[in-house]
Every structure is written in structure tokens, then in C-alpha cells.
Amino acid sequence: MVQDGRVPAGDVSRRVGVEVIEARGVDSKLLVEKLIDAAGAEFTTYYYYTILRMYLAGHEDYKEICEDARLEDRAHFELITPRIYELGGSLPFDIRTFADRAGCPDAYLPNTNNGKLTIKPGEAVEVKPAQILEVLLEAERCAIRTWSEICDLTFGKDPRTYDLAARILNEEVEHEAWFIELLSKERDGVVRPSGHFRRGEPGEAPYSKNRGFYNP
Ligand code: ZN
Ligand code: FE
After folding, report:
1. pLDDT tens digits for 57-92?
2. How close is the Cα of 163 to the center of ligand 2, in Å?
3. Which fold, 21-188?
4. pLDDT of residue 2
5. I need a surface site. Which of 21, 59, 115, 172 has the fewest CB within 10 A?
């Protein structure tokens, strides 16, 4: 039974879960658009991090951190996607549309002419780890801005979206700190600790998968 009785019993064309957040001042259509952009950024970041990680060859420590960030961004895509549908939205049917509207810039491998470079098997791309770490860092910063905006739009009005966005934000803030630590030491020789503890397993996503935290 709906409190104000606006959605008639059995009516599946309307959603109480949407109307209650609208009543609290959320523009649910705008929110859906922003969630699709944000999901697109997570999905494309997962893709680009796959490549960036490959080109950190020889730096097993960097590869391991990149792997956690990569898998956690996939977890973020999966965490937020159901919310798009709950709000009545849908992912674009064409992945090209989805990638094009991603809310963050493409995290291209440096020295690839914005991804347009093609190489044949056996050819190499000349890229330094510091260049890759810079791309990773700026991608995390974009993610922090994105999820902070979603938190601001939903705080006190849409507790479910807020909770999901806040969980993701927790991990994005950690990711930024990790890459500041690595880039600062690699590029500048300066120690700026991130407070990083090793994930229990690769891409554990303690917040977005609701796993136990560092000390189980
Ligand atoms: Zn993410
Ligand atoms: Fe991230």
C-alpha cells in the first residue's frame, strides 16, 4: 500500500521507488542520464586499464595495483547498472553510443596518438611507467568528481543511489591515493604514502562488493 495512494494497485507503468525520490526533489530522468554516463566511464576505464596494465610490463608491483583498480572499476559498473533500470532507464543498445557518452575521457595508452596507433605483432610502443601512472591517476580523479556529483544529487533524497555512489567513491579515493604514491616515487623520487594495504584478493572491492575490510 502506497502512502499517498498515487500509484494504483497493480499498475506496473509507474514506480513508487521513483516517485518517492521525485517527491524529495530528485530529477530522476537527469539522474538516470548521469548514471549512464558514469557507468560508461567505469566500463571504458575497465577496458583501458586492461591495456595500461599490459604496458606496465616488468613492474609487477604497479601491475598488481593497476589490476585492483581495473577489477574494482568493473565492480562499479556492475554495482550501478541495476540502479539505472530500477529508475526506469536502460543502457544504450549500442556499445559505441555507450562508450561515446562516458563521463570521463578515454584513458589511452600514451604515445598511441589517442588510441589511433595500430601495431603489428612483435612491434613495440615506447612508453614509460610514469606516463602510464599519470593516465591512471587522472582517470581516478575524474571518477572521484563523477561519484561526488552523484552523491551531492542524491544526499538526503535518494538513499539507495547515494549508498551505491558512496561505496564507489570510497574506492575511487583509495585508487587516487595509490597512484599518487606510485607516480610521486616513480617520476619525482618523492615518497607520498597512500595508506595502501593489500587487497585480500585481486579486485576485492571491499566497499562496492560489501566485503570485509582490511583486517578480517
Ligand atoms: Zn570506479
Ligand atoms: Fe577507480
Report:
1. 999 999 999 999 999 999 999 999 999 999 999 999
2. 17
3. Ferritin (1.20.1260)
4. 45
5. 115
